[in-house]
């Protein structure tokens, strides 16, 4: 039987959210942020879905992947 500690599960959730943000950033004009949530753990959000982020959400950002699509032609 393998026991996964809370720290290991927390690390796994963080790295899964980072991987998701990195993948999404490749095909987005907007930055992808990983935020820490007390109830949900870590989740990736698209800045374009939220418009101007409020300070409480900005304070919970733990990682940012830059949008990979240039907006200039």
Helical segment count: 3
Indicate the percent of residues in helices.
25-40%
- Run of helices and strands: HEEHHE
- Find the structural class using helix and strand composition: alpha+beta
Count the E strands: 3
Largest sheet: 3 strands, antiparallel
**Strand sequence of the main sheet, in spatial order?**
2-1-3
What is the domain tally? 1
Descriptive notes:
- The radius of gyration is 14 Å and the shape is flat.
- It has 3 helices and 3 strands.
- 15% of the residues are buried.
- A hairpin with a 3-residue loop joins strand 1 (32-37) and strand 2.
- The protein has 73 residues and is of the alpha+beta class.
- The protein has one domain (6-65).
- The longest helix has 20 residues, at 6-25.
- Strands 2-1-3 form a 3-stranded antiparallel beta sheet.
- The termini are far apart.
């Amino acid at each position: 039987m393998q026991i996964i500690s809370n720290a290991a599960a927390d690390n796994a959730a963080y790295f899964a959210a980072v991987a998701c943000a990195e993948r999404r950033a490749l095909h987005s004009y907007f930055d992808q942020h990983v935020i820490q949530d007390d109830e949900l753990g870590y989740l990736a959000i698209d800045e374009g879905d939220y418009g101007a982020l409020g300070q409480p959400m900005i304070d919970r950002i733990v990682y940012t992947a830059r949008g990979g699509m240039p907006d200039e032609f």
